[in-house]
Amino acid sequence: MTTENTPEKYKRWCKGVCFTSLLVGLIGAGLTWFLFPVKYEAKAWFFAYSRYVVDVFGPGPRDDYETLLATQFAIITSDRLLVEALQDARMAAIKELRKQKDPVRWLQRNVQVKRQGKSEFFTISYRDMHPETAKAVVDVVSEAYFARYENDFGNR
């Protein structure tokens, strides 16, 4: 092995390592893209008053804000409300939903209702690979909740 030939070997070796690293990186990026698809999240924010709480579905004013909030969350993910939401034409257009044997249970697992920290805000959210689908699900569930709220409040 001569010293004049050594730098040439290192240049070839470096080119090989760089090419192999680039190839492995591209393959890794491609696998990541296909195995972990990007999901878009749609989210609707709601404000729940804590000072003067009126339980729309109960007998009258309440002092227990946490119970009221939990009740509203349960209503949003209830069978009755989600069945009403599934009647909307926008839901019928969702391919993933049409594949489900039990679309109500599937929605209950995938539509998230969460309180935002200790604030008076809560959200309804849904994640999907298509932003328009995510938005449609959140819009329809939110509208069904408002319709039920207005109907029950109006009946009082």
Q: Brief overview, please?
A:
This protein has 156 residues and is of the alpha+beta class. Helix content is 58%, strand content 15%.
Give a written overview of the molecule.
The chain has 156 residues and is of the alpha+beta class. The chain has 2 domains: 1-36; 37-155, no CATH class. Helices cover 58% and strands 15% of the residues. The chain has 7 helices and 5 strands, in the order αβββαααααββα. A hairpin with a 6-residue loop joins strand 2 (53-54) and strand 3 (61-62). Helix 3 (79-86) packs across helix 6 and helix 3 crosses helix 7 (131-155). The termini are far apart. The mean pLDDT is 83.
How confident is the prediction overall: mean pLDDT?
Answer: 83
State the major sheet. 3 strands, antiparallel
Q: Taking Cα atoms only, what radius of gyration do you get, to the nearest Å? A: 26 Å
Q: Would you report the number of β strands?
A: 5
Number of domains: 2
Summarize the amount of helix as a percent range: 55-70%
Order of helices and strands: HEEEHHHHHEEH
Low-confidence stretches: none
Distance between the termini: 96 Å
Q: SSE layout and pairings?
A:
Elements: H1 6-35, E1 40-47, E2 53-54, E3 61-62, H2 65-76, H3 79-86, H4 89-92, H5 95-98, H6 103-110, E4 112-115, E5 121-128, H7 131-155
Antiparallel strand pairs: 1-5, 2-3, 4-5
Helix pairs in contact: 3-6, 3-7
Keywords:
about 160 residues; alpha+beta; 2 domains; 3-stranded antiparallel β-sheet; two-stranded antiparallel ribbon; elongated
